[in-house]
Amino acid sequence: MKSWFDRSAANGKTSRNSWSQRIVDWLFGYDFFISYRWEDGRDYAKRLHEILKKDYTCFLDSSEYAAADDIVSIGRRALKETSRLLFVGSPRAAHSKHIKRELAVYRSSDRGVLAISFGDSISQLRSADPEFAELLPPDELHLTESPRALREGPSDHVVYAVVKSLATELKRMRRKQAVATVACTITMLTLAAVVMVWMIVDYSRSKRAQLELLNVLAAEVEGLDTEEFKVTIDGTASEAGRKQVDANWLVYCCNQLGVLRELRLSNCDLTNVEALAKLRSLEHLNLFSSRGIGSLAFLEGLPHLEQVLLHNTGLADDHLSGVTLPRGIVELKLTKNKITSAGFDTLLLQLTDLQRLERLNLYGCERLIVSKEHIEMLSLLAEQLTGTRRTLVIDVGKSDSSNHLDDPDVVMRIHELQEDGVVVEGISTSPAREED
Predict the structure, then answer these.
(1) Cα(61)–Cα(231) distance, rounded to whole angstroms?
(2) Is the dihedral of CA 62, 114, 103, 105 positive or negative?
(3) Are strands 284-286 and 262-266 parallel, antiparallel or unpaired?
(4) Which residue range(s) make up the domain with 253?
(5) Looking at the whole model, is its pTM more than 0.70?
(6) What is the rounded distance in angstroms from the CA atom of residue 123 to the CA atom of residue 126?
């Protein structure tokens, strides 16, 4: 009858000693690790390795180590990734420190060693060395070979028992992994449930806080629309006829509640007006007859602004100086303010950048006098509007009179501007004198 070794050699399976296979084994571990004493267990270990490697991954130091390898670190990793440790219990194994280290590393992960005894060699090892007695407890499974097997190689019944022990060990490991997986799943589900409960509680607190904030804001605001989110504060409704509004407080409340689209503050005395720049979603701003606007620089922080109504807010030329208006503005109303011709110059210089502007209203700015130079600047603007199908209306009228121009060339140019898309309102012109 052929031995296990002969049958395995005849099945023609390829060797597992290629570098690619070594890398795979190093990453995913081995089925068997053979621990032995070179002096008297090497032949048996090599024969056992030759048999097992045909169908299983098997680590043997003489086959797996290459030149310049760190034997200790590689062996330690191989042990940790091994399913079954096979100890060749030759009589002189007790004198090997390496074997004791390998047994200790493997057993540190609560796994049993499969020892192969040659006669009563395992019992003698336990008696001769207390450390072996601890590493190889008597109640642990071991296989028995005849002493001559050290020279002749493994017997069929031992090889069969070794393979069967691997299946048993793998089954035990799978059960252990299944338990760990279940425990991990339960833990993860518990954590997920805790997180979900926390999120629900946090969301409830957030909604409750928003409702409380809404109530506070509603007590101060007339016309609060929670759906489209428009805020209106009318100072004339207060006893004093004006209302004190801290822009910091207002911005904080609005940003907590959501996205603010429109803000109307009429007849209010404003403080910290620069905080309005934090209302990034604002599209319509109306500060009708409100005071406390130290600068218009806050407009630069409102990229979505389309309509700016600043009627009778005490604006003067210095409020316009150095300010870059949002490019998306469609209507800019600066009526009844202290803007002069110099302020008008500042505005005209920015009109070329305001590509969506349709109306600039400076009605009631009594100190604003339109000059010939202003009309020339508007002529340059009209050239840019050519072909855009956009009309820009500029109202420079006064409440008690109109800006008056009597230069016939300027009057003619104003009429031409209207044809080019720039309509200037609030200017009275004298008809040109007929030549004699």
Answers:
(1) 80
(2) positive
(3) parallel
(4) 206-429
(5) no
(6) 5
Residues 101 and 232 grouped into a single domain: no
Q: How confident is the model at residue 412 (pLDDT cuts 50, 70, 90)?
A: confident
**In angstroms, how far is CA 397 from the centroid of its own chain?**
54
Q: Model confidence over 229-245: pLDDT tens digits? A: 688 888 787 777 788 88
Assign residue 301 the CATH number of its domain. 3.80.10.10
- Tell me phi and psi for residue 254, to 5 degrees: -65, -40
Exposure string over 365-379, b if 16+ CB within 10 A, otherwise e: beebebeeebbebbe
Of these ranges, 45-49, 59-63, 103-107, the one predicted with the greatest mean pLDDT is 45-49
Kindly state the tokens that stand for 287.
């500060």
- CATH assignment at residue 8: 3.40.50.10140
Query: 3-class secondary structure for 104-151?
Result: HHHHCCCCCCEEEEECCHHHHHHHHCHHHHHHCCCCCCEEEECCCHHH
Contact present, 407 and 435 (Cβ < 8 Å): no
Alpha-carbon Rg for the chain, nearest whole angstrom, is 46
